[in-house]
Amino acid sequence: PQVKVLKALERLTAQRGYPPTVRELADAVGSSVGTVHVHLGNLRASGHVNWVDGSVRTLTICKAL
Fold first, then answer.
1. Are 8 and 25 in contact (CB under 8 A)?
2. Labelling 8: which of 15, 17, 18, 54 has CA 20 to 30 A away?
3. How far apart are CA 57 and CA 11, in angstroms?
4. Nearest-CA neighbor of 21 among 57, 61, 54?
5. HSE on the CB side for 39, CA within 13 Å?
6. Per 3-state DSSP, what percentage of the chain is helix, strand, and coil (rounded to 5)?
7. Is 53 helix (H, G, I), strand (E, B) or coil?
């Protein structure tokens, strides 16, 4: 599931030129916003993604899985 979120983040960012919102990620992977938040938190803890707290569209990939 985390791989799916990370790949969707990569794909949507490449397509649009800017990162998606969590809601857009949730729609892309067919999951709830809460579930995507959990996956993003785990990906952040492992150093795969990062974002600026309190800012929108700052989600970035730091390293691939």
1. yes
2. 54
3. 14
4. 57
5. 20
6. 55, 5, 40
7. coil
Please tell me the distance from the alpha carbon of residue 58 to that of residue 30, in angstroms, as a whole number. 22
Measured CA angle at 51 (ends 5, 36), to 5 deg: 30
Per-residue pLDDT of the chain (65 residues; tens, 9 = 90+): 899 999 999 999 999 999 999 999 999 999 999 999 999 999 999 999 999 999 989 999 998 87
- Which residue in the block uniquely carries the two structure tokens 């990162």? 19
Structure tokens, 52: 């600026």
Run of H or E residues at 34: helix 33-45
